[in-house]
Amino acid sequence: MKYLYKEFQKIYFNLDKILKLFFSLFIFMEILWIPFNSWASEEILALSGHAYLSSSNIIQVFMEKWWVTVLFLLLFLANILIAYLQMALIFVSIRQLLDKKVKRFRDYLIDIKEGMTVVMKSTNLSKIVFVLFFSVVLFPFLKRILNIYYYNKLLIPQFILDYLSQNSMLLAILISSSVIIFFWIASRLMYALPQIFFEQKSVAQALRFSLEKTKGAKQWKYFFQLLWVLLQSFLTYAVLSGFFLGLQILADNLPQVFALPIAIINFTFIQLAYYSAIAVFMIKFVGLLTGEHLPSYHRQRLHHGLRLTIMTLSALVFMTQGILYLYSPFTTVPVTISHRGVNNENGVQNSLEALQETAKLKPDYVEMDIQETKDGNFVVMHDTDIANLTGNPGGTHDYNLKELTQMTASENGMSAPVVSFSDYLDKADELGQKLLVEIKVTAQDSASLTHNFLQRYGKRLLAKGHQIQSLDYKTIVEVKKYDKQLVSFFILPFNSIYPTTMADGYTMEYSSLDQNFIVRSWFNQKSVYAWTTNDKDSMMKMMLLNVDGMITDNLTELNSLLTDVKENLDYSYILSLYVQQQLDIF
Questions:
Q1: What is the DSSP letter of 136?
Q2: In a domain, 93, yes or no
Q3: How far apart are CA 127 and CA 234, in angstroms?
Q4: Model confidence pLDDT, tens digit, residues 237-266
Q5: Domain that holds residue 345
Q6: Angle between helices 449-464 and 473-482 (to 10 degrees)
């Protein structure tokens, strides 16, 4: 207990410097640099002549105009340089805190300026590459401190992870083994960082120094020392956030008029705990690498007012975030959309039988898929290869509509006839069920696919309030040219540069959605649908992002969650999700 008190006293002595460091980084990254990156990326994309960046056009965007590629490359290089200097600033700042000499804040800033000047003079591409590789690959805990615009866009969508986890028992072993191996490599190479930042050594010299220092039996000593540093910060955050979560569990038994303000206060303290944990980690980490520690200060007059003022300002910022996080998302309710017309495997996807059962749960929309047939008609089918569902080889373009509707699709232990879109639409209108029709486009389609579809069904879709979505932007353009009132969504498989399109909104894979995309959509008056949210946690996360709709295979769970939100909001659960996100280092 005495040790903890002394450690707290040391941190409190430097609290003004620590909070100003993080506050300055926050202001620069969140308010200046990231918005600038968004704007610059969109402007460069506009210069390319493309309205969006997706897997379908990424080659054209980067290959059609060489100077656009150069601009993107320069912006990317600027980002990694900023990230490198951000890491250098944190190391230099923490190193100054470890100095035995007591410094006034002005002297502290002067020393940081001198240290950063030296770092910048010795900066080269190899140092940048190594530091960022160490930070985001070998030791990804550090990426929580960095905020690299393009790096945050690089992730594996959740639907791919779900597919891999269902089809490979080795995946969990592979990931776990990779984490351990990368952590071990990080413990072998970590002493290169102070050599680069403080001694101005080349990467090769720094690596040789670190490998020599950690060779032999000593490598496990440093492995566990690094692990202990990480655990200290993790435990700091876990214990503090756990305490405030416990308070919120008690507060949730009170009427919501009291539970919400208490939740906002607890959110504020959880944020303070998070940045405290980061401060603990960086101080311990730099201390481990340099062999220095925060000095014990003799009792002297401290400017408590300054420290309390900085803490109060930080708390006000976090409290504002808490209001936006805990109150704003629940002022509206997202629309519910059944994915492929099913709910909890209650039938064969895109079948009339599943539609009838799912419609009983009254989703706002039923999402379904149509494809063109050999004779230019439209069949309800998701997969381009129909063998998996029907047992018949080929795709929809290998058969006419009559042949396809004589086939039987089997899934989830059930069977149902393949259905034409005309019959599916008739049944939906009979049930009073609105549809979200996805127009699937393939290389085998006729040039007039969308035109023919709209001529046959466009007026009816508009009159009944149905909506359209597609991965193909040309299809969206044709829909909007046909009638601007026919609501259409452009499907984006991942979140990259914000698009500028004619679509009424965007359908995006939920794990790549972020607050920046939602805010931009709000400003541009575009709706956002998230797909495919199938569990309570992912649904609540999307509600907290304030999406306009959710596409799900589990409509029962989504309806239940929305009922709970309306009748009895569980703030402790919401805060626990936030804590989980903060602890997610990958």
A1: I
A2: no
A3: 28
A4: 999 999 999 999 999 999 988 999 999 999
A5: 331-553
A6: 60
